[in-house]
Amino acid sequence: MNLKKTYSEEELVYLLQQRNENAFVYLYDNYSGALYGIVNGIIINNEVANDVLQNVFVNIWRKIESYDPAKGRLFTWMLNIARNASIDELRSKGYRDSQKNISIDEQGEIAGGITGPNIDDVGLRKVLGKLKGELRVLVDMSYFQGFTHEEISKSLNIPLGTVKTRIRSALTQLRTMIQ
Amino acid sequence: MNTQEYILSGIVESCVLGLASNEERSEFEKICARYPEVLEARIAFELSLEKKAFEYAVTPPPTVKTNILNRIGTAAKVIPIQKASETKPSSAAFGWLKYAVAACLVLLAGSIYMNISLSNKNKNLQANNKTLQDNYKNSSEELAAIKRDIQVITGNPNIKMASMKGQGISPKSYATVYWDTTSHDVYLLTNNLPIPASDKQYQLWAIFNGTPVDLGVFDMKKERLLIQAKNAQGAEAFAITLEERGGSPTPKGDMYVLGKL
């Protein structure tokens, strides 16, 4: 028997800000899959991805007071928490050691290869695959690996202004792709 | 400014995806507040991104949920739903059955198992039934309250109304004041007000000769249409400000809506 109530986004935010635990369980049940997909797109190791997702939801619960609907939708806010937590983990020393990953300086030389074959099929990365060569590398490095424009400019040896314009142009293409 | 060009520059995507610099983001927020077409473009992109993320959703292992609830201290309070099949009779309770005929043992154990299982199912059904009844009762009470509210504003020829329009801080806000010219009762309908932070409360003011008079603070209640305020008569205007929780003797916070009579 399904007695589950559905909440509008506005109600959900209101209840979460009132520390309503049932609303939090509802939030988890409804959004964990989509957010896990985001985390998985960045973190290859499943166990680490599980830990990151845990931190993401604990942070959502702790920071919900600071969510401001005027600045964006609830999902966008959570998506950014999930991405930031994943990038932090990805770039943490512990993770890099465990995955025997390459350092940032070496990244540029193999940038064409992105991060390995498996992860390209996960989540939003699938969409990314439709972008052409260099644009794809740029979005991958900035969105999925969290490099700043400056870092990308340095490692790929492209002027900073060009990095910015190309990423912007790649993002507008992405928008049309996901419409 | 050319909003179309701005929208097509990729700034919308880069802000939503969290790739913009702090400067770009705060400029973008200001522009969104000022140009509805930019805001629309932002929401449209957010929605398509959300849709994609849901298409690519991956169900996390169930332990993640348990761990999270443990960490935020919710687990103890969320009652787990017991599955009937998880409750099996303990073998110690049937010690004497060892001496019974094998066929009897199987039949009896089966029967006891069925009883326990059915009894658990029955308990679950009763619990569900109780929840349904409670939901129904709550809904009926909410509906009755809303009906009474509608009666207050439509069934009384002495009721007058004034709409309060959004002010600079929140142009889309909108609320309506109803008052009874004979009983002097004042009611408030919050058609559209942003949900305030938990340490803040909206406060309603009646304005007499330019002086605001407190008509009380109120919380946003989903289940009620109207909020009854303190009585007032002969006001020249009504306004709502956002104040510290508990209200203020004179308006100090931002004014969200104002309606002149």
Largest sheet of chain A: none
Q: Which pair of protein chains has the largest interface, and what are the residue counts?
A: A-B, 57 and 52 residues
Biggest sheet character of chain B? 8 strands, antiparallel
Question: For the residues shown, what is the average pLDDT of chain B?
Answer: 81
Give the ordered list of helices and strands of chain A: HHHHHHHHHH
Radius of gyration of chain A: 18 Å
Task: Give the terminus-to-terminus CA distance of chain A.
Answer: 36 Å
Percent range of helical residues of chain B: 40-55%
How many β strands of chain B by DSSP? 8
Q: Shape of chain B from CA axes?
A: flat
The whole-angstrom Rg of chain B is 30 Å
Mean pLDDT of chain A: 84
Percent of residues in helices of chain A: 55-70%
How many helices of chain A does DSSP assign?
Answer: 10
Low-pLDDT sequence parts of chain B: 78-94
In brief:
With 179 residues, chain A is mainly alpha-helical. Chain A has helices at residues 9-17, 21-42, 46-63, 74-91, 93-99, 104-107, 124-128, 133-144, 149-156, 160-178.
Molecular structure report:
The complex is a heterodimer of chains A (179) and B (261). Chain A has 179 residues and is mainly alpha-helical. Chain A is built from ten helices and no strands. The longest helix of chain A is centred in the N-terminal third of the chain and has 22 residues, at 21-42. Chain A is globular and about 50 Å long. Chain B is α+β, with helices and mostly antiparallel strands and 261 residues long. Chain B contains six helices and eight strands. An eight-stranded antiparallel sheet of chain B has the order 5-4-7-8-1-2-3-6, with helices on one face. In chain B, helix 3 crosses helix 4 (36-55). The longest helix of chain B is centred in the middle third of the chain and has 53 residues, at 102-154. Chain B is flat, with a radius of gyration of 30 Å. Residues 78-94 of chain B have low confidence and may be disordered.
